[in-house]
User: What shape does this take?
Amino acid sequence: MQRFELFAVLVGMVSAAAAQTPVPAPAPAVPTPDIYLARLAAAHIPIDATAVVVKPLDGGTLLWSANAGRPMSPASTMKIVTTYSALQLLGPAYTFRTEVLADGPLAGDVLRGELYVRGGGDPHLVVENLWQLVNRLRGFGIRDIRGDLVLDKSLFEPLTHDPGQFDGEEGRAYNVGPDALLVNFKSIALTFVPDSAARVARVMVVPEISGMKYPRMVPAVEGGCGDWRARLRADINDPMNIRIAGAYPLACGERAIYLGALEHTNYFAAVFRALWERQGGAWTGKVRDGVVSPGARLVATQESEPLSSLIRDINKFSNNVMTQQLFLTLGAAGGEPGNPARGAAAVRGLLAARSIAAPELILENGCGLSRIERISAATLANVLADAWNSQWMSEFMASLPISGVDGTMKARSVSPGVAHMKTGMLEDTRAVAGYVQAASGKRYIVVAFINHPNASRGTAAHDALLEWVYRTG
Assistant: This one.
């Protein structure tokens, strides 16, 4: 066979073999959240001011991220780190205990000596619980206290807290600081209830504050609700002497102004005295901070709800002071008084023990109401993944707001029930972090941060991202 013929035969054999070898299909394109990116662009928020992680939990294929390792301000999504750490370190059945002790003789129904209240850091010692504690004291046989009411707050180190430091709104309830004997979030609800027949709005204060002065009713007017606070012309600078010079629009229905301006010790004293006297008790002493006398005897206790219930209030309604109470309690778990540094050390130790690297993590109070707290989207996604695989997954999952159903996700533009998602909001920050169950049935972790002056316009972008995961994942 000539060389040319041999070459032709060989070429034919190679061509035939190539024809039998399948050509690899091109790799499928990775889906990108175009609607999310478009909403960011419409809000004039550059992608460089964001951080996102979308990753599957149970075999899904959707995977997308941007700036995942960048330290970001997380706002209230930092509460995920604190509440999950508490579940792991304290357990879901952990309760906070408030104790009342006495060190003087009880002659008949007269206590001649000090009455001590020892704080256990309860984040949810609301006025109803304090009322129960007062009833237990009355049941013990005490009617007349002839001594001081001594508040033992030694579970936490004394903290210097300026309620106006963060944003200048020192009277707002969300700026209330922690206290080992926190009662009712140290808040006062000034509630206006319209009475159209009498042409007035009746004013109620909850809880009742001994010595507080306020108008029992204010004039009511017709017209739209609008800026009803401005129309009231309320002077609330002195919370013990509320003045109202304006009128309340009937169209507003029932509304409330929440105050948090009283100092912790004086607030406790005013609420306790009102409850005590309403139950027929007498008290001639004063209130002061101190520590329980070694010889004092226990006369009454009040247990909180279990931690698994408390973190529902924290995460669903983004309660700042409850989270700070929890953060300091973690710091006190080693036997020393709780402080922010010990709380942060407890959280870092928990993350390290569970192999979650977080070199960029900065903790100040654990609740996200901070100018310095930082975490990356990747680290927060790893915390959520660890929570999903932990023994307390169901308790943690139940604490997160549900899209279209409750908490801070109730009014969001996300399909109802598909997202269990913690939200976060500061002036220059918007954040979401949690879980989305896609229409396919697969579950995904989603973490998204915006840190930008236009962050307030970015809520629609985050909602679009969650909806994209639901429909695409």
Observations:
- The first strand starts at residue 50 and ends at 56.
- The chain has a mean pLDDT of 91.
